[in-house]
From TrEMBL:
Family annotation (InterPro entries): Diverse_substr_monoxygenases, Luciferase-like_dom, Luciferase-like_sf, NTA_MOA
Protein name (record): Monooxygenase
Nucleotide-binding as UniProt keyword: no
Taxonomic lineage: Bacteria, Pseudomonadati, Bacteroidota, Cytophagia, Cytophagales
Keyword Transmembrane helix: no
Positions bound to FMN: D58, T95, Y147, S217, S218
Entry keyword set: Flavoprotein, FMN, Monooxygenase, Oxidoreductase, Plasmid
Domain Luciferase-like: 20-332
PANTHER family cross-referenced by the UniProt entry: ALKANESULFONATE MONOOXYGENASE-RELATED (PTHR30011), C2H2 FINGER DOMAIN TRANSCRIPTION FACTOR (EUROFUNG)-RELATED (PTHR30011:SF16)
SUPFAM superfamilies named among the record's database cross-references: Bacterial luciferase-like (SSF51679)
Organism, as annotated: Hymenobacter swuensis DY53
Length: 374
């Protein structure tokens, strides 16, 4: 069972895509990962189509054998801040690793993005590969540290985002009262990995807090996500696996006394869409031919627009997803999806025709969380 009025759509605007060869396509800017004009174009395209949010994955340790996008990409918070100025309604979601930064820094960055965008920011907080800790003076830590560290990180992040009550800053010029100090709540957190006094130096968000996601698949992931986040990003490698994980998440939410409707479960797919199945297959062959490896997995969502819409409807109505993240390998992947599939989803009442709210939370049908102290 799905638990929202409509399916949510995210556009994953990760440069040339998560593969080795799409940058070689004649219509893909070879420097797409560092090309701000390309990102602006993708962001505005998704906003015109009323996608709820943009989404960026992240990596912050690389080697020469990585995919081109890994080797040549913008830092997500900086990029999203630029896109905030070129868009008005669409959400701005970035991924960052809790193994590779400090919670105070990330809390400031994401809440700043939230203010700059007037309530459209969200963070996908991931644990990432432990190998990268050598870039962040944490080479002594390993895989076993990552989830305990992640948990502390999320508690601090949420605590810092609720440093101030909504009306903590009267900024009254007459009386000279800028801050009501009784409404400021430093967290004074002492953990094994992080120690943070607070307070943060930015007021509470218009959407309460930035939307928080986690990505993963393990039982620890399910447990932490249902305790701390507003939603998840699941691998989505098959319909059956996704239904199982989505149901496990829902059961855990209910067990913890949370409303499943206040939680967004999403997967990413890289649809290759045509007017006919044959046209979609020709597009797939065109990118496959770019090499360097002839093997490129056939996307789970490939074929005519009608076929893709049916598949999305099946996943949505089975409660496997609340949000579909549209990722592109083909340079027209998102555009094709918008032109061919979105109208069918709208016709069927599965996807909205316009933004209903000003904030990302509102558009995701998530309630504004009340202020709380941890
Ligand atoms: C759907 C999904 C998306 C992910 N995205 C990223 C990412 O953008 N950057 C990254 O470094 N790791 C990413 N990861 C890896 C996770 O951070 C994590 O290391 C991994 O999933 C281990 O957690 P698990 O054992 O609970 O699944 C992703 C994982 C999943 C399942």
């Amino acid at each position: 069972m799905n638990n929202r009025k409509t399916l949510k759509l995210a556009a994953v605007i990760d440069g040339p895509g998560w593969n080795f060869s799409s940058w070689r396509h004649p219509d893909m800017p070879a420097d797409a990962g560092e090309n701000i004009d390309f990102f602006i174009q993708q962001a505005q395209l998704a906003e015109q189509a009323k996608f709820e949010t943009l989404f960026l994955y992240d990596v912050s340790h690389v080697g020469p054998g990585n995919i081109p996008y890994y080797l040549s990409m913008f830092e997500g918070g900086t990029l999203m801040s630029a896109l905030a100025m070129k868009t008005e309604r669409i959400g701005l979601s970035l991924t960052a690793s809790t193994s590779y930064t400090d919670p105070y820094n990330l809390a400031r960055q994401v809440l700043s993005l939230d203010k700059i965008s007037k309530g459209r920011a969200s963070l996908n907080a991931i644990t990432s590969n432990p190998g990268g800790m050598v870039n962040f003076s944490r080479g002594h830590l390993g895989k076993a540290d990552q989830y305990p560290m992640h948990q502390e990180f999320l508690e601090i992040l949420l605590g810092l985002w609720d440093t101030y009550e909504d009306d903590a800053f009267p900024r009254d010029k007459q009386s000279g009262v800028f801050l009501n100090p009784r409404k400021m709540h430093p967290i004074n957190y002492r953990g094994k990995y992080f120690s943070v006094d607070g307070p943060l130096n930015i007021s509470r968000s218009v959407q309460g807090r930035p939307v928080l996601y986690m990505a993963g698949s393990s039982p620890t992931f399910v447990d932490l996500a249902t305790s701390y986040t507003d939603g998840v990003f699941m691998a989505g490698s098959s319909f059956e696996e996704t239904v199982l994980l989505a149901n496990a998440l829902t059961a855990k939410l209910v067990e913890k006394g949370r409303q499943p409707a206040d939680f967004v479960r999403s997967v990413a797919q890289n649809p290759i869409v045509g007017r006919t199945d044959a046209e979609a297959h020709a597009k797939y062959q065109a990118i496959r031919a770019l090499g360097p490896y002839s093997h490129r997995p056939v996307p789970l969502f490939m074929g005519s627009a009608e076929r893709i819409a049916n598949e999305i409807q099946k996943w949505y109505e089975a409660g496997a997803i609340d949000m579909l993240m549209v990722q592109q390998d083909h340079p027209y992947g998102i555009q094709d999806f918008i032109e061919l599939v979105v109208p069918i989803l709208q016709e069927r009442g599965i996807f909205h025709r316009d933004y209903e709210a000003q904030t990302l939370r509102g558009n995701l049908e998530l309630p504004k969380p009340a202020f709380r102290t941890i």
